[in-house]
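Researcher: Here's the sequence for the chain we discussed earlier.
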Amino acid sequence: MSDRLRFSWRRIGAIAVAAVVVASMTASTGSAAASPAVFGEITKNLTYRCTFPLVGPQDVTATVRITLPDAGQAGVRIVPSDLSIDAELSASIVGALRSFQTHHAEGTAVADVDTAYDGKQLTLGLPGLKIPRKDIPPSGTLKLTITGAMPDFVVYKAGSLNLGAGAQFNAKVDTRKADNTPTALGILNVPCVVKATTPPQDVLFANIPISSSPVEMAAGRVDSPMGDISKTLTYSCVFPDPVGTQDVTGTLTGTIPDSGKVGQRMQITNLKIGAALNDAITNELRAREVASVGGSGRADVDADFEGTRLTIGIPGAVAPIAVPATGPMTGTITPDTPSLIFRQPGTVNVAAGQGLNGRIDGFKADGSSAGQLPLTCTVAPGQDPHVASVPITA
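Model: Thanks. This is the structure I predict for it:
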């Protein structure tokens, strides 16, 4: 990250909207409103109905694991663990993969999370889940573990925050032969839904009680024009000595729909944050013999949906970039921006949150580690963080 952080209207819109969803993530619709689950590490066994090419609809058993706090406080960040899903593919699915000379496969997935907070119900499509490479066995079933980072979030009213598994789970699976060339199947799109049963499956993770009075959040209701826009903000970032505190300018860009409809998925695309690292930062990298950097970060987004305010920390990766021989450099953070389904009409007002935090991983010319630079950034005072207002219609 660097001197200024520029947030694009649509990207922030996406992040903020995601923030709204995640923050309200707990009691979804239907059976997600059941009695509270046990806190700590929560384990939920679910059966999905997944449609595979050639094989058709198949049942897939899955065990979902997530760790949640047993309580929260208004204005204090709630940090879930990463999401973990253990799944088992049937022998018929494995046999179909083998019939196309599939030696190994890997991929990505998006899992829906249903949420409810302060009378608002939302569905968050959580991207960034990883399906690790697995060799296809000669017979039998195939077990795999799918993992991904969850956003953290802050809510601003006392009450209860409900979180449950959403109805949809979608995977993209890249099938490869033994020589690593693509099979005739190519990349498989595998849509899944929670299987309808009698009685319905219990998809509730937890009802998290939120204590304390609301914390006021500066969020103006100023309409912004729709479309691709960029917002420039200056952050004050704290680096380890001898770099110390530096002003960092960031640029946020991306695309979000001009409006949304209740019950329809809103997809935010092309979200990126460009962060310029000044000479003080890059000189320290060069002094440490850092030839390239990567890493990870979280960008806070504040959202107000019809009086329900919350902040979400959206995780993302810092794309690898070479350190120049002289001068500053610009890094890019790509947040794992969720899609959103709103369950009520209203207007979402989106603003840049106070925090932009991350870690810069350094690598020497030979690829070995050159250490890490943690950084903690907050929006410098006196700036207007508002990004956009998105109407959601019935």
